[in-house]
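Bench notes, afternoon.
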Amino acid sequence: MPITLRPALPDDIVALWALRTVAVRVSCATHYAPEQIAVWTASTVPPAYAAMLAAGGGIVAMQDNAITGYAMLDANKQEVDAVFVDPACAGLGIGKRLLAALELLARQRGIVRLHLSASLNAVPFYAAAGFVALREEAYAHPSGISLASVAMEKALAAA
């Protein structure tokens, strides 16, 4: 089945958050303690998601009418907010396609440098896409826990 990309819609929020929760439970288990993952995945959808979607900052990967991944751009912060792929679809290049589409969206909006806070398991993915690690940091998750992460950035070529 081919993978297609489309803009994320406000009606997608529940499905996106469910996919994110599964992805965190599976993909992050290699780098974070079960207690951290339990709190991390119990958090609710942040209000910023609706705002990013309303601003056209979300991209969804579809395969046979099912969401297989998504990416979110916070244009105000010039930040990659999220790239998540259904673990059952890992290794198909979906994350790479989503990130490339998000970078194009950012360039079209005049963003010349993207930032992100990468979970430890995602650092190699972002590095392979040209992001450079700036520093290790503790990400203050909205749930109240602190997650080890890596601040990264990438200069974008002109659109």
